[in-house]
Amino acid sequence: MSRTAQPSTRGAETQASQPAHGVSDIVAAVEEDIVLGRLHPRERLVEETMMERFNCKRHVVRQALFQLDSIGLTERIKNRGAFVRSYPPDEVEEIYAMREILELAAVNKLPLPAPPEWLAELEAVHQQHSEAVYAHDLRQVFHMNIAFHRTLFRACGNTYLYATINEFAQKAHGIRFIAITDRDALAQARREHELMIEAIRDEDRERLADLCRQHLLPSKNRYLALYT
Q: Which residue has the higher pLDDT, 153 or 11?
């Protein structure tokens, strides 16, 4: 008899005492699991397991899976279910080509010299990201990395460009899981953030653009190397 066939009474009580999660909570949790390597490409997401984990009804899990599919982190395979998405090399190249186009367009619109309040906010987020890297707190690294790039590109002043940058960055979360668990890669990303801030202080748009371009490469290259 399998262990999962008869869950313990204590486990059932603990599960019952947990508050139910909403769709956005489930999406955020699964997204984090994918980025941090707890869920792997081609791994199946079982509705019953998710219902138990998040203490919610099936329709809530299905709505979350629909959203995860719509942002490109999972995919539904007919008659088989939902799986963590595995991107083939050509799609990885296309996603990162779009990210480069979008981010460089934003760099061209960033205000230089930098407004003091924006630079201070960027430096504060970088400090929090650095502390997470030093502590190897991967969950915090993930969230503060998002915060750094959103703080950086929000200043471009174009809400549609900013939203599209975030959309393609989110698509890449299923590709970035290798780099975010590597200590050397994290240290490199932290240093590149620091250099970006220095370029902004120096009002060197060309150097900032080159740093943003180079910053995209490690996660893409690691994923492609693993895929092949």
A: 153
